[in-house]
Amino acid sequence: MSEVERGRGGTGKAADPPAPASPAERLDELAALLVRRFSGVYATRPGGGSVLYLIRSGAGPRYVLWSRCRSAYVWYGEPDHGERIGATAEQAAEVIGEALNLPRA
Q1: Which of 3, 6, 12, 23 has its CA 20 to 30 A from that of 104?
Q2: Residues contacting 86, CB < 8 A, separation 6+
Q3: Cβ neighbours of 41 (radius 10 Å)
Q4: Using only C-alpha atoms, what is the Rg of the chain?
Q5: Which residue, among 68, 20, 64, 70, has the nearest Cα to 44 in the 3D structure?
Q6: How much of the chain exceeds pLDDT 90, in percent?
């Protein structure tokens, strides 16, 4: 398909919407938000995996996944395994901050 057919040739047609973000990109976005908004949390995906590890001083780790079938961030592991956190990184960051009693940065 040419650029004109795709709506990028100045014809006034809308361009194709951006491709959906991968689960890894979504988790990286959430990690960056958490670190910016809250202190006392380290968010990482060891080895580039599909699980976001939330490490807090003096507390056990918590884990977050992006669920494609639910189009949402969800808790992974106990005590809230599978519970929906939020559809956007902004929503999820706020829910996580509250759930983990994280102080604002």
Answers
A1: 23
A2: 72, 73, 92, 93, 94, 95
A3: 21
A4: 17
A5: 64
A6: 79
Cα distance between residue 32 and residue 14, in whole Å: 31
Residue where the block lists tokens 């961030």: 73
Q: Which position has the higher pLDDT, 85 or 5? A: 85
Number of Cβ atoms within 10 Å of the Cβ of 49:
12
Structure tokens at 45: 């995906």
**What one-letter code names the amino acid at 91?**
Q
**Among the listed residues 7, 29, 11, the one whose alpha carbon sits nearest the alpha carbon of residue 20:** 29
CB within 8 Å of 49: residues ≥ 6 apart: none
pTM for the full model? Answer: 0.81
